[in-house]
Design goal:
methyltransferase, RlmH-like, 22% strand, 5 helices, Alpha/beta knot, 159 residues, alpha/beta, EC 2.1.1.177, Ribosomal RNA large subunit methyltransferase H
Length: 159
């Protein structure tokens, strides 16, 4: 299985980079992992709705250019469906059984995802009703993908 994590913006903090590197290394025995970062747009404080939509549209175009037509797309959205770890593992496993060979997880920028990206999603996933920094969300997502593969392979992992 090929897993792509498609994100907006770069990681600036070394501790996030270290965690991402660790989970990437752990995942290498289960899947072919690719992390793609697209540029984020500068957000001006007190932006209008129209200005924020323009920013999300620009970021959205960059995201959509990096999604292959045949990929199964899972967007991370506050209003998506919440799954527990076992359900996420089951989802990933069933996608593989159904012949999906490429899953793309999409994490938006600080303003979220543009509606065009959300429309491209095959599945909308929510980790919480809370908002997380997108850099931290990468670590959380990679940890959950790793946990999913441990569950799929009936391997022990802390609960």
């Amino acid at each position: 299985m090929k897993i792509t994590v498609l994100t907006v913006g770069k990681i600036k903090e070394k501790f996030y980079t270290a965690a991402i590197d660790e989970y990437s290394k752990r995942l290498s025995r289960y899947c072919k992992l690719n992390i793609i970062q697209v540029a984020d747009e500068k957000t001006i404080e007190n932006s209008t709705e129209k200005e924020m939509d323009i920013i999300k549209a620009k970021e959205g175009e960059r995201i959509l250019k990096n999604i292959p037509d045949d990929a199964f797309v899972i967007t991370l959205e506050i209003n998506g469906k919440m799954l527990d770890s076992e359900e996420l593992a089951d989802k990933i496993n069933k996608l593989g059984i159904m012949g999906e060979s490429h899953i793309v997880f999409v994490i938006g920028g600080s303003l979220g995802l543009h509606q065009d990206v959300s429309k491209r999603a095959n599945f909308k996933l929510s980790f919480s009703k809370m908002t997380f920094p997108h850099q931290l969300m990468r670590v959380i997502l990679l940890e959950q993908i790793y946990r999913s593969y441990r569950i799929i392979n009936n391997e022990p992992y802390h609960k």
